[in-house]
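hi! just following up on the protien thing from before. the input was this:
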Amino acid sequence: MHRRRLLPPLAAALVLLFAAPTLHAAPSSTAADHRTVVYYQTQFDGDTLISPKELTNHDAGATDVIVGAVHLTDDDKARLNDDPHDAGRFDDMWSDLADVQSEGVHVLGMVGGAAQGSFTNLENDFDAYYPKLKEVVEAHGLDGLDLDVEEEIDLSTITRLIDTLRADFGDDFLITLAPVATALKGGGNLSGFGYDRLYEERGDAIDWFNTQFYCGWGSLQDTSGYDDIVDHGVVPAEKVVAGTVTNSAYCDGHVPFDRLTGTLSELAAKYPDFGGAAGWEYAASDPGGSAAPWEWAEGVSAAMR
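and the predicted 3d structure came back as:
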């Protein structure tokens, strides 16, 4: 459940999405190289940019950075947090993200999250709202979109969006979703549609799921919650990325870093095609906190090797 859960004095920011017509090769998930996904929601501490370039400057092992969250509103342009996605305050951020891409890391944008409305707007008037989303993808040349549906919509809305993105941006464009963990084992979810049915209809078009094992929907204290999803037999381990909160201030369900890396190491040993780990979110990630947030990705990547 992606919300504003920030450590003071960091300013809360809900950010954007984007995906790219120009695509960048990045590491794929293998037995020795699982995905390390970093959500990048808080871009500023006051007026100071919290740069994602530290992930590549420190060779932290991140494979994907997801900027959250894009909002599709009645404004002429999609918003990134509270501002138009191309507002001047974001210029340095977009430049730094392009540098991260140039180092082989995918950059995606997150659509939706706890701030509802974007998917309902797409459901009610797809032809009016989809072009705003497409504009963000094209303007910033990013590699994919993370569809975080935390509002009730019909299955046909999300399948139409997936199909349209595939048609517009091709097979190499990354399309991910961010369901709560129970959704991938046939249980409750926040999206309105069933993920078993979605996977049966569009599984081949979905690259992976950034699965939320937190906020009461699951836990990574041990491997049991992840095992339940694999045992459910619908979504394979290679497409289940284990998501966690990176700081106890963000949400219930934070797992101490030593315990988290132990769980991830066990999962990587148990499932050679284990999808990897995702952290919500970058700005104050333990164990380095706001002074060294890249250390989360560094430690997690090492644990999965």
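Confidence is low (pLDDT under 50) at residues 3-32.
Residues 126-140 form the longest helix (15 residues).
cheers
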